[in-house]
Amino acid sequence: MITQLNSDQINRYKRHLILPEVGMEGQKKLLNAKVLCIGAGGLGCPISLYLAAAGVGTIGLADVDVVSPSNLQRQVLFGVSSIGEDKVKASAKRLKDLNPDVKVIEHKTVVNSTNVLDLVARYDVIIDGTDNFPTRYCVNDACVMLRKPNVYGSIFRFEGMITVFAPHLKNPDTNEAGPCYRCLYPEPPDPGSVPSCAEGGVVGVLPGIIGTLQANEVIKLILGVGRPAIGRLVTFSSLDMEFRTFKIRRDPNCPVCGEHPTITEPVDYEQFCGVPILDPKSLAETEAEVKRAKGGKSEDSGLDEKGLPHGYAYDPDWEVTPREVKSLIDRKEKFVFIDCRLPNEWQITHIDGADLIPLQQLAQRVGELKGKEKEKVIVHCRSGGRSLQFAQVLRQQGFKDVKSMAGGILLWNKDVNPGGPQY
Ligand SMILES: [Zn+2]
After folding, report:
1. pTM of this prediction?
2. Choosing from 197, 254, 257, 340, which is the catalytic residue?
């Protein structure tokens, strides 16, 4: 417990001390505050940097991930030297360097129903900087149960949103209790219906903007100044440079914060959402990225004798392997080769000789393939899903010999063209 600032601290925080809304008392509140940031990624980086700089005395960071090269497009706390390191560890080093006053507590763990109450109980303010639905519901429920404000932010492509979920606190405008995440979203989305940032992309500066706004809300809550975003959902569109505010209200029938709650302890959130907290595919991608960045040899390519990933459910009626396609090309055999991805994906990496017909345009452009119904047609995409759909449509249209390239260009770039871009 800090009761007095030393002269170094007075110098460090003088821009705060001169603000009447902060002052000596406010700076002591910051130094004595305990804040938990769940997720040390795109949002967690600016949040933790600004909170550490502001002198928030105890910052807990919960994340199991390691830093990979594709994080550096937006996770500004890390550098090339952090690649392969635990995010919580790399963050702690940087934050301690930024401000030695700050105690950083590393929680290298998945936050789930077994540990969330213990974790949340140790902190005053909780920040949701996660990217998956099971953790969002888990953090929300624990915050409601333990009456902790949950400073929420989310990002996707060019859009972000922020609010403070705190049913135990009042919306300063209406004097009503604020809602929780479940009041807004009682049910999780259908598994697979909402693409992640890894699938849909995110403009790198966006988590910087949303995360900084989250840090701002945290500081206001600690100081007890201003109007916290309780009962207000603020959305930001970076393309339109537009903020919009929506009033959001508590649902009296909410199963966790309502009048008669039915959820009084954490549940199995992976089961509730129908998706795992840790996506095995993105974990594998991270591992491969880190390995490549470290110049690791890939003696174990993870591929079988056909050049397919171990356990791949290969269907020879519908698929060809990248190796077979390569040998057709090498033997100069004639076939129609179609890349059914989007033009921006083509620009990242493509195979010479393939014609671009995005799956979305197939209905309009199928005429371009007229007269080739009897020829061999091979379709590829990024990882083999869209090309299979494309092949199915062509067969329905009377094309006799259509196949999808198993594993798409990602597998091609692993097995046939090693070192080619993975995205
Ligand atoms: Zn609620």
Report:
1. 0.83
2. 197
